[in-house]
Every structure is written in C-alpha cells, then in structure tokens.
Amino acid sequence: MSRFQVVSGKGGTGKTTVAAALALALATEGKRTLLVEVEGRQGIAQLFETESLPYEERKIAVAPGGGEVYALAIDAERALLDYLQMFYKLGSAGRALKKLGAIDFATTIAPGVRDVLLTGKACEAVRRKDKQNQYVYDYVIMDAPPTGRITRFLNVNDEVAGLARIGPIHNQAQAVMRVLKSPETAVHLVTLLEEMPVQETADGIAELRAAELPVGRVIVNMVRPHLLDEDTLRTAVGGRRKEIAKALTRAGVTGSAGLVRPLVEQAAEHAQRVELEREQRAVLADLELPGYELPLIDEGMDPAGLYDLATELRKQGVGEGAGQGVGT
C-alpha cells in the first residue's frame, strides 16, 4: 500500500472522518501514522475530541496492537517561515516579516506557493527518516481539499511554473511532485451513493488522471443497510396494499387497515432509494477502480465510531501489505 494516502471528496461526504478512520486502520499492529490537515478547520481535533492541533506533530490516538496515530494541522504561514529558515536562514528576520504582515500577504496573493508549502510539509513527513535510516512514519494520511479543488491543489508544479522557473521554490515544487506522482502516493475519493457526489467523484478522477496523478480507491461512505428483500421491494414499488393488509391480518396485527398506508409509503421510499443507489453503483463500477464501503453510523461520529470504521476498513484489506494501492 502506498505510504502517502491523500483523501478527498465532495463536501458533506465525510472525507475527514474517512481520513481519520484510515489513519487508525493503518496504525494497527504497531504501525505509526501521521494524519495531516491542511484546511485549518480543526476537524481532526473535533473527531478525536481533543484540543485544537498546534503546528506540531502530536500523538492523538493509540490503535489496536499498540500502533500510534499522530496529527498535524499545517499552517501555510508557519510553513513559509520554516521554508525561509531552511533555504535563506532568515530566523528572526522571518518572524519580523510575519509581524509586518508580509507572510500572510505572500501566502494570500500566491495560492500556488501556498499549496507548495502545504503539500511540501506533508511530503517531507513522508520522506523523513530517523537516525537508524528508518521512516519516522509508516504512513502519512492527508485530509485534503474537496474534489473540485484536489487536482489543482496537488498539481503544484504547474501552479508555480509561472511564478518561479528557477530557484528554491521551483526546486521545492519539483521535489513535491516527485513524491505525488510516485507509487508512494494514492489519492482516494470519498463519495455517497447519491447522484451529485458520484458525478463529482467521476469528474475528479478524470481530472486526476489527466494530470497523471495516482488515483487510489473510491471509498463509499455512510452506506445504509437494505431492510427489505427483493420480493418485498417489488411489492412495495407495486403498491399492493391489499396483499399487505391481508398479511398483517394473518399475522394478528389489529387495526391493520390504518397501518397499510404509512407502511407502504415508507417501503416505497426505501425501494426508491435502493434503486437510486443501484444506479450510482453502476456509475462507480464504470470507473474501474477498487473501493471500500463504510456503513452509516446513526449515533453520530465520535472516537468509538472511528474505531468501528477502522475495524471495517481492516476487514476489507486496509494495511494488508503491498498491492492495495494505486490501480490494484
């Protein structure tokens, strides 16, 4: 499995939740993962019910088997200060620029540079090794921007080409793209079994492929169970109320006549949803990508729910060695 897992998806599909569950699943059996946030929403801290993440890597969870999940909220301004110190040794001068507002100005007027800084910090964590020449993190998972912006966000080399054709910024963008376009990286898209998220997922995959960025898996989130078998669904769609009324009477249900209408209406709505989901599954199947499915958790998401989703991902093969990544 690729060491850098980028998770995107249309707003409302639960991409942050999926990224967090993926980090937990990959940390099972003693692995160490880093969960990275780049949008400044502190969504990871909220999910794990911890205090806001600072601009530093902090352990936020322990996975089954003793694995560890660390998290980092990448701030573009702080990343630029790191960059200035790394390449220009500005030190206190860089901090003075921040006080003057120059750092905020630079990251605002040059969004391409901002994306280089954000992706560059994550890629540095992917490549980082300890004194024993071992990777510090087995996996880095990024909670990335939504599907509509993901290709432009990741394709930073093109973004900065007109801004810096030579020099440190250019070299940094080149280094980032070497990681992003390598087998080390997989970009996963999260969707629901609904028309708009599925269409945006299909469009996003086409854009990623056109940019030669490595598409990983389609992760279908919040999958609701099918409550009726095929025969019952056909009965519901057909509106065969008399048959339902007779069945209720035979079952000894009193006042069955008054129950028929609401039961039929609910069954018909369920049958319609099942049919719509089938149509969307067919669209996803045409994308010819492997995928995962995660169930809807009715009680709302909390750390216990994240562990449940991580267990489900493990059941579906997450973390079981190579061959789970791009194009497999």
TrEMBL record:
<protein>
    <submittedName>
        <fullName>Arsenite efflux ATP-binding protein ArsA</fullName>
    </submittedName>
</protein>
<dbReference type="InterPro" id="IPR016300">
    <property type="entry name" value="ATPase_ArsA/GET3"/>
</dbReference>
<keyword id="KW-0067">ATP-binding</keyword>
<dbReference type="Pfam" id="PF02374">
    <property type="entry name" value="ArsA_ATPase"/>
</dbReference>
<keyword id="KW-0547">Nucleotide-binding</keyword>
<dbReference type="GO" id="GO:0016887">
    <property type="term" value="F:ATP hydrolysis activity"/>
</dbReference>
<feature type="domain" description="ArsA/GET3 Anion-transporting ATPase-like">
    <location>
        <begin position="3"/>
        <end position="180"/>
    </location>
</feature>
<dbReference type="InterPro" id="IPR025723">
    <property type="entry name" value="ArsA/GET3_ATPase-like"/>
</dbReference>
<dbReference type="GO" id="GO:0005524">
    <property type="term" value="F:ATP binding"/>
</dbReference>
<dbReference type="InterPro" id="IPR027417">
    <property type="entry name" value="P-loop_NTPase"/>
</dbReference>
